[in-house]
Design goal:
The chain is α/β, with parallel strands linked by helices. The chain folds into two domains: about 5-215, DHBP synthase (Alpha-Beta Complex); about 235-320, Rossmann fold (3-Layer(aba) Sandwich). About 30% of the residues lie in helices and about 20% in strands. The chain contains ten helices and 15 strands. It has helices at about 10-20, 40-50, 70-75, 80-90, 110, 125-135, 155-160, 205-210, 275-295, 310-320; strands spanning about 5, 25, 35-40, 60-65, 95-100, 115-120, 140, 165-170, 180-185, 195-200, 215, 235-240, 255, 265-270, 300. An eleven-stranded mixed sheet has the order 1-8-2-3-7-4-6-5-9-10-11, sandwiched between helices. A four-stranded parallel sheet has the order 12-15-13-14, covered by helices on one side. The longest helix has 17 residues, at about 275-295. The chain starts with a strand and ends in a 7-residue tail after the last helix.
């Protein structure tokens, strides 16, 4: 299959045509590039899983044009609906995904057979234009092979999926550079509104506190992007530690540093020379990808401060690092 790369403003009609035929296309979002398919077509969603090499046990996020589309895919009682609409008014369009009780209209393939579905309203103008013309939700996980580094540019998508999909729309670099926050709102036994962060992202705990009691707890395999091992480069990645004698020459090691240049390594990427966590998040996947493609054998990552979006950066790095000790 030939993969065509078009500027987003030039390729919208081609993308719409392919999506209506049940094909999958890569589209820019404000978080990372997504691989989109008609959410109401099981065969299109199956093609999406095949293109990514994604296990069918890993559910997908559905993308809606606005909150008025919620009734197409979820069933909400009045107590939950009130906070869902309040969260939508505050953060949609934007990088917040809500895990909500699904309607039967949502295919089991989308939710991995689970009773809830993940939803968000993107703000990227080209993605929104396609949703408005298609008038159907789009399933859109990250446009990369399963488990690999998420793509934040059209060239990243081409490197991952060339020959596997027909079209990539180039909308420039992604604004946030990490995936959306996934949140599960529910009432506890005492009737208190609980907001469970299943995956940290650009919408942080402090931003959510006005809407309920916030806590973080992942549900491995129960929400998109929640698997323990994910977002990983092909080369083995380990945590950087100062004053450690590494078992291979430093020239064979690439380092992902937060804000300071640390000399002596075979390859170096600095996420933000100013120590800005938002800049670091936007740089994360591109820097990891360049290190992965460099002429070194192993990779190290320096921890970043777990504050604000730094929590999301650390979450992605923790899932990417090797669970085994260095050599």
């Amino acid at each position: 299959m030939e993969t065509v790369l078009l500027k987003a403003e030039e390729g919208i009609d081609a993308a719409l045509c392919l999506l209506k035929k049940g094909e999958v296309v890569a589209l820019p979002t404000e978080t990372v590039y997504g691989l989109a398919a008609n959410a109401f077509s099981p065969s299109a969603v199956a093609s999406l899983f095949q293109a990514k090499g994604r296990p069918l046990s890993d559910p997908l996020i559905l993308h809606l044009l606005d909150a008025s589309w919620l009734d197409l895919v979820v069933e909400l009682d009045s107590s939950i609906k009130e906070v869902v609409l309040a969260l939508g008014a505050a953060f949609w369009p934007g990088p917040l995904t809500l895990l909500l009780p699904r309607r039967e209209t949502v295919a089991d393939l989308v939710t991995a057979g689970l009773p809830h579905v993940a939803l968000r309203v993107p703000f990227h103008p080209f993605f929104r234009k396609i949703l408005s013309k298609l008038k159907l939700p789009l399933a859109a996980p990250s446009a990369n092979r399963f488990g690999h580094i998420s793509p934040t540019s059209a060239s990243d998508v081409m490197a991952e999926l060339q020959g596997r999909i027909p079209l990539i729309l180039d909308g420039g670099p992604c604004h946030y550079g990490v995936e959306s926050t996934i949140l599960r709102p529910f009432l506890d036994a005492q009737g208190e509104m609980m907001l469970q962060i299943l995956r940290p992202g650009p919408i942080t705990a402090s931003m959510l506190e006005p809407f309920g009691k916030v806590f973080s707890q992942s549900l491995h395999g129960q929400a998109p992007g929640s698997l323990e091992s994910h977002y990983a480069p092909r080369k083995k990645l380990f945590w950087y530690q100062e004053r450690v004698k590494w078992p291979v020459p430093k020239s064979k090691i690439g380092l992902l540093a937060f804000s300071k240049r640390i000399t002596g390594f075979g390859a170096l990427e600095v996420l933000s020379s100013q120590g800005d966590l938002r800049e670091a998040a936007a740089s994360l996947y591109g820097a990891l990808r360049r290190l992965d493609e460099s002429d070194v054998d192993f990779l190290l990552a320096q921890e970043v401060p777990p504050l604000g979006i730094g929590v999301a950066i650390m979450d992605r790095l923790q899932r990417a690092v090797s669970k085994k000790p260095f050599l």
